[in-house]
Design brief:
With 328 residues, this protein is mainly alpha-helical. It has one domain. The protein contains twelve helices and no strands.
């Protein structure tokens, strides 16, 4: 990542934040448009992992070989450059496993499973919208973060804005049916991503290495489990009958875009802003995805959308300030 050495930390943080929010917003809009597509949610999860693995698995193997070569030349590095999972993950096994479990395997399985019960509109509110709250609650005991009154106000504004954007649709979940199951899955997926966000800061992980490690872990866990469930008849697949263009698109966007690019930029953002401020910035996603749906999917522009987006924006302005924040 040589550009991070040429650019100032502030510039890197701003660019990383912009790219992350752009891709996350696109993910929600594309998910809404893909609800009636040929692929099942589990197929999309598989396409996500396989698409990312095409890039990140070779990169992981190269990083491990480079680390081993460096350790051979300098014995003092032998204990600091641990690898795992057959030399494909450039991180130690315990870090690869815990970060991969929450940041890739569980997140993808829960998020895509949620789409089988609840509409994508619920996901746009519940996943990125609840992320700042989960991250703040986890960062207090794990990172020693002190939530100042200003930041608490920012969190309250974000929650209020998210409720205004998606509150009406969420209330329909109580009318009966299985929608509530999807809502629970989306909230749990958001909680898993919050854990991963805090862990990247706790372990001071490099963005590329963290993204490689969780992808390798997902490849070696999600793919075999997907195959077992498919053979046992628990899930069904449309991969063999779906249009090739749709499969390649999902591999490209979900894998290269959502995992490789936004995975690295999100970790860069966490490095610069910290996990809580980073997830407060991503709270822009529900409002922006709703606005994008107005223009690209012809969804109605409602008053609660405009006010909710204004509240979220105000909350972010409060939340990203450094006044009175202490990491013990």
């Amino acid at each position: 990542m040589h550009f991070t050495e040429r650019w100032s930390p502030k510039t890197v943080g701003l660019v990383a934040a912009f790219i992350t929010v752009l891709i996350w917003t696109s993910f929600i809009v594309i998910a809404r448009a893909s609800v009636k597509g040929a692929l099942t949610p589990f197929d999309i999860g598989l396409a996500r992992i396989l698409g990312a693995s095409l890039v990140l698995v070779p990169l992981g193997a190269w990083l491990v070989r480079r680390d081993r070569a460096a350790a051979a030349l300098d014995s003092s590095l032998s204990g600091t450059l641990e690898s795992s999972l057959f030399g494909l993950s450039p991180l130690p096994l315990h870090i690869t496993a815990i970060c991969g479990l929450f940041g890739s395997f569980a997140y993808a399985a829960l998020a895509y499973s949620g789409f089988t019960f609840a509409p994508a509109a619920h996901a746009s509110v519940l996943m990125p919208g609840s992320l700042p709250l989960w991250t703040s609650l986890l960062a207090v005991p794990l990172l020693g973060l002190r939530i100042t009154p200003v930041r608490a106000l920012g969190l309250a504004l974000i929650v209020a804005g998210d409720l205004l954007v998606g509150g009406a649709s969420l209330l329909k979940a109580f009318d009966g049916g299985d929608v509530w199951k999807g809502d629970v899955l989306f909230m749990t997926a958001s909680f898993c991503w919050a854990i991963y966000s805090v862990l990247t800061r706790l372990y001071a992980l490099q963005p590329v290495r963290a993204t490689v490690a969780i992808t390798v872990f997902a490849l070696m866990t999600y793919v075999p489990l997907y195959g077992m469930l498919l053979l046992s008849g628990v899930v069904h697949s449309q991969l063999l009958v779906a249009p090739l263009g749709e499969v390649l698109f999902q591999m490209g966007f979900q894998g290269l875009g959502s995992v490789v690019i936004s995975g690295i930029t999100f970790n860069l953002m966490v490095q610069h802003y910290g996990p809580v401020r980073s997830t407060m910035i991503t709270a822009l996603v529900p409002g922006l995805s709703a606005l994008a749906a107005v223009f690209f999917l012809d969804e109605p522009l409602q008053w609660n959308l405009m006010i909710g987006l204004a509240l979220v924006t105000a909350g972010i302005l409060f939340g990203v300030r450094k006044v009175g924040v202490a990491i013990k």
